[in-house]
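We were asked to recover a plausible sequence for a given structure. The inputs and outputs are reproduced exactly as logged, with field labels preserved.

PROBLEM: sequence recovery
POSITIONS: 417
GIVEN STRUCTURE:
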């Protein structure tokens, strides 16, 4: 990737325009009120929208197989693997029309980047990357990757996988859509987040039985991979930022990761400050997500004696989603979580006593654009009134206004300009 710095000196700097405000729909125009963000974020980061990154899942397919919409024994197109019916129905991510609409919604929210859930070279998620990048590029949206646990031994390929992504989707495309994050001091480089990286060697179940964790990787293996990657790329970028979805403040730096990127929506915003202090003591960067909570679909058949349904988050007493007032309550609680998590993550990232501010780093993951199985999609749902009778009979929890999460996020993000 010897041409990388030459590219940074020319084309990339000419392409840092913010997403066009004119793409806002009428319902979102009121979200663009001006206010100064913490510590003048918009002044410190001229490309601020690209520091807000939607978690994006490219695994959905249409007929006849309906990939992922059939998860946990569902039977699409009416019975889908989601507690809500999306506004677009059980769509196919391979559809350019679908991707164009997604890009418009992402831009309307003021978000300038997505992190694609990536499951290894040659996977069908990998095969969809080029089209997704084509469409996102046309809307000024940058793309990075969330490294998923696609195999128990995937750690041994971590460096090679990232080099593959940079080569195929960065260098070969002329860096037209790859997210290169710019710090406050102007230093630039890619950022990758990894899931299930820092794991215990064993776990004990509810029956008291201890089992080996099949994808446990020793810290030394991760360290060799992260060191190899940085050594290989040292001439191409100012730095490469590697984040782990981990709260292990000793093992994470020992494994060579620069910081933590937390995915779990059960980690409430009231805990962000304490964890940010712990990360900073370990000289780790941190990114706590903006999220609307959690509402996971349940399997129709359960054979695991230790299985327990996961509760609605944020915790809400007396919630009955079968009733309109229960769905309205869930929407209010979900919107409150969006606002609280947004303010909490901005507060810790703007704290001059903590590591992010000291190092000029700012990055907010938004969980998620379209993880429908876990009920935390910002992608609009159908309005409750628009559900077909057959959809209503299946008990979807769609609220009165299916785009309330996206509108709340737009108000918050545009308010930083």
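RECOVERED SEQUENCE:
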């Amino acid at each position: 990737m010897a041409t990388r710095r030459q590219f940074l000196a020319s084309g990339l700097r000419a392409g840092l325009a913010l997403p066009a405000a004119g793409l806002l729909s009428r319902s979102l125009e009121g979200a663009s009120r001006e206010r100064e963000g913490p510590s003048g974020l918009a002044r410190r980061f001229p490309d601020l929208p690209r520091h807000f990154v939607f978690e994006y899942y490219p695994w959905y397919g249409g007929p006849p197989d309906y990939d992922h919409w059939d998860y946990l024994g569902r039977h699409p197109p009416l019975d889908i693997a989601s507690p809500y019916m999306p506004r677009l129905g059980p769509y196919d991510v391979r559809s350019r029309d679908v991707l164009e609409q997604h890009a418009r919604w992402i831009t309307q929210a003021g978000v300038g980047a997505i992190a694609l859930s990536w499951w290894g070279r040659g996977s069908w998620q990998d095969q969809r990357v080029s089209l997704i990048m084509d469409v996102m590029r046309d809307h000024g949206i940058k793309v990075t990757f969330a490294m998923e646990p696609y195999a128990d031994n995937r750690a041994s390929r971590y460096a090679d996988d990232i080099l593959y992504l940079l080569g195929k989707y960065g260098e070969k495309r002329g860096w037209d859509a790859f997210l290169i994050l710019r710090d406050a001091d102007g230093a630039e480089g890619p950022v990758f987040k990894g899931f299930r990286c820092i794991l215990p060697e064993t776990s004990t179940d509810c029956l008291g039985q201890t089992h080996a964790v099949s994808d446990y990787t020793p810290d030394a293996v991760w360290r060799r991979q992260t060191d190899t990657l940085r050594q290989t790329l040292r001439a191409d970028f100012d730095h490469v930022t590697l984040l782990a979805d981990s709260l292990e403040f000793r093992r994470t730096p020992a494994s060579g990761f620069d910081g933590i990127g937390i995915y779990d929506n059960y980690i409430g915003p009231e805990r962000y400050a304490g964890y940010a202090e712990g990360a900073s003591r370990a000289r780790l960067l941190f990114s706590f997500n903006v999220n609307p909570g959690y509402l996971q679909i349940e399997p129709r058949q359960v054979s695991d004696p230790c299985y327990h349904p996961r509760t609605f988050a944020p915790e809400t007493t007396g919630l009955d989603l079968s009733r309109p007032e229960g769905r309205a309550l869930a929407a209010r609680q979900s919107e409150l979580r969006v606002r609280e998590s947004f303010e909490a993550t901005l507060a810790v990232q703007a704290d001059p006593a903590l590591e992010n501010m000291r190092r000029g780093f700012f990055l907010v993951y938004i969980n998620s654009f379209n993880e429908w199985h876990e009920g935390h999609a910002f992608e609009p749902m159908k309005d409750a009134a628009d559900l077909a009778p057959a959809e209503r009979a299946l008990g979807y929890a769609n609220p009165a206004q299916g785009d309330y999460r996206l509108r709340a996020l737009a108000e918050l993000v545009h308010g930083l300009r």
